[in-house]
Amino acid sequence: MQLIPRIADRTVVIGVVGLGYVGLSVAVALASAGFQVVGVDVDVERVAMISAGECPIRGSEPELAELLARVTASKKLAVFADYAPLATADVVLVDVDTPVSSDGRARFVSLRAACGALGGVMKPGVLVVVESTVAPGTCTGVVAPTLEKASGRKLNEGFFLGHCPERVMPGRLLGNLRELPRPCGGESPETCEAMVALYSTITRGRLETCDCLTAELVKTAENAYRDVNIAFANELGMICEAVGADFRRVRELVNQSPGRDLLVAGAGVGGHCIPKDPWLLAQAVRGQWEATPRLISAARGVNDAMPVHVTHLVEDALGELGVPVHGAKITVYGYAYLEDSDDVRNSPSQVLIDRLSELGARVAVHDPWVRAYAGDMYAVADGASAAVLMVAHTSYRDLDLGRLKRVLARPVLVDGRFLVESRAARDAGFVFRGLGRGEKTT
Ligand SMILES: NC(=O)c1ccc[n+]([C@@H]2O[C@H](COP(=O)([O-])OP(=O)(O)OC[C@H]3O[C@@H](n4cnc5c(N)ncnc54)[C@H](O)[C@@H]3O)[C@@H](O)[C@H]2O)c1
After folding, report:
1. Is the CB of residue 198 less than 8 Å from the CB of residue 184?
2. Percent of the chain that is helix, strand, coil (3-state, to 5)
3. pLDDT at res. 293
4. For ligand 1, is residue 215 a contact (CB within 6 Å)?
5. Is 219 a catalytic site residue?
6. What is the pLDDT of residues 402-429, one digit of tens each?
7. How far is the CA of 173 from the centre of ligand 1 (A)?
8. pLDDT at residue number 288
9. Fewer CB atoms near the end CB (10 Å): N or C, the chain?
10. Given this model, what pLDDT does residue 103 score?
11. 219, 276, 329, 405: which is the annotated catalytic residue?
């Protein structure tokens, strides 16, 4: 592989397949670092928008829109809805979505399609790097055979394969790309060396080499670890609520004990990654063990149930005023899965909305970052019997309790994100329920 000197002098052409949160960010970062980048996505509208220099990501995303406009204007980034232009690429990064189905298994529909199409056009000697999160064993078990079949070439002879899982978070896409350490998993030592040379042009983070399997395990394990820790915080939050304590005070004191880093309880876990990556990790051993890994699936169960728990808080608060959920208008604040983001994938709010609707409520939704739900946040609550805070968007932190109470038909407020103090809500005349806050605390 003669890539390293050509990476240094920026003469390699880099392809990026999948221009979503991850692929668009890395394409912009590489083009800004001086590479010629060719992006491909099957979403024709997205390709048209990016070609016009418009950023399709709407949340607060420092620098992304400006840099995107610059690299498309200078033609350092050119994007297409077909794979033919990837024939010029020396390195191709694969950034397609990798969801799991309702049974918790990934079928890698986008990944298989992308590799099949790429294999048909890629040039001899190309380095293919999977950045998408995949189940352990996918690079050698799915990606390599699909590329071999479609290209008629052999791994480590006619093409090279690596896995450098992405670690970005919406809201900090470019900042994370530049700063975070990453494992560079390669199926040969030369592949690892070329990956380190490439990624060191866009990140100051530490780059350590390993094989693809190790990199796959690292990524899925780090997100499963987070999910399990969030589940513990959520379970403790519900225990505090049940016995009449304040989770935040308990957490504060727990974290004074050495080596403890208890996370914050909340109304649910969403996004494209944390709800599915634990299942990708579990998928690696399904059928080989006596059972599915138990801790991982238990944690998923706890976190998935959090918006259902919020439904119970709403029912309980309305019940105090003798108001049935059936027929009541209920306003849900926040639809994105994360504060100040437009990412609505696996939104916990949708679970709450579905549950309340099943119970006969009329649900109104507000989210400043999601076009379909933007608008005046108080107008959305007009005549509602309850308001529920589901996402800690910055604009919700300055909630005017007096104004909210004036527009509501009933003074019921439920807080799933520690945005409102119980005492302030009660002083303003609300019937209040706060996730993680029991009745004895105010
Ligand atoms: N979103 C995050 O914060 C994040 C963070 C770390 C890792 N990841 C991982 O990165 C991967 C991508 O995530 P994302 O959030 O960018 O997803 P996304 O859904 O925003 O983007 C995926 C893009 O791939 C395109 N695509 C699908 N099939 C294609 C095909 N056959 N050919 C070309 N394009 C195709 C889609 O149209 C879409 O634009 C996933 O594996 C995810 O788990 C995501």
Report:
1. no
2. 45, 15, 40
3. 86
4. no
5. yes
6. 999 999 999 999 999 999 999 999 999 9
7. 13
8. 65
9. C
10. 87
11. 219
What CA–CA distance (Å, rounded) separates 436 from 230? 13
The token pair at 389 is 């805070």
For the residues of 155-168, what is the DSSP string, one character each?
BTTTEEEEE-----
Residue type, 420: V
DSSP 8-state symbol, 202: T
With the most atoms of ligand 1 within 8 angstroms of its CB, the residue from 92, 130, 166, 168 to mutate is: 166
The response to whether residue 22 sits with its C-beta less than 6 Å from ligand 1 reads: yes
Indicate the pairing of strand 126-130 with strand 431-434: unpaired
| Percent over 90 (pLDDT), the chain | 93
Q: Which residues contact 224 (CB under 8 A, 6 or more apart)?
A: 277, 278, 281, 282, 296, 299
Q: What's the number of CA atoms in the CB half-sphere (13 Å) around residue 420?
A: 32
Whether 59 lines ligand 1, by a CB cut-off of 6 Å, is: no
Burial class of residue 270 (count of CB atoms within 10 Å of its CB; 0-12, 13-18, 19+): buried
Entry field: residues in the chain: 442
pTM over 0.90: yes
Q: Does any ligand 1 atom lie closer than 6 A to the CB of residue 18?
A: yes
Q: Which stretch of DSSP H or E encloses residue 220?
A: helix 212-243
Residue 40: CB within 6 Å of ligand 1?
A: yes
348-358 vs 306-320: helix axis angle to the nearest 10?
A: 50
- Cα separation of 319 and 184, whole Å? 55
Q: H or E element: which one contains 407?
A: helix 401-407
In whole angstroms, how far apart are CA 152 and each of 47, 127, 243? 29, 15, 64
Query: Can you give the pLDDT at residue 291?
Result: 60
Which H, E and C letters describe 251-291, residue by residue?
HHHHCCCCCCCCCCCCCCCCCCCCCCHHHHHHHCCCCCCCC
Tell me the DSSP string of 299-342. Answer: HHHHHHTHHHHHHHHHHHHHHHTT--STT-EEEEE--SSSTT--
Cα 225 to Cα 139, 218, 316, 436, distances in angstroms: 22, 10, 33, 22
Whether ligand 1 lies within 6 angstroms of the CB of 61 is answered as no
- The two structure tokens encoding residue 220: 């899925």
Q: What pLDDT shows up at residue 74?
A: 97
Please identify every stretch of the chain with a pLDDT value under 50, giving residue numbers as ranges.
441-442
Nearest Cα to 348, choosing from 360, 361, 365? 365
Pick from 41, 276, 341 the residue to mutate for probing ligand 1's pocket: most ligand atoms within 8 Å of its CB: 41
Give the Cα separation of 336 and 346 in Å (integer). Answer: 9
Q: What's the rounded Cα separation, in Å, for the pair 414 and 422?
A: 10
